[in-house]
Amino acid sequence: MTTDKNRPACPICGKPTDERRKPFCSKRCADVDLHRWFSGSYAIPVTVDEEDDERREENDGPTH
Ligand SMILES: [Zn+2]
Question: 14-33, pLDDT tens digit by residue?
Answer without folding.
Answer: 999 999 999 999 999 999 99
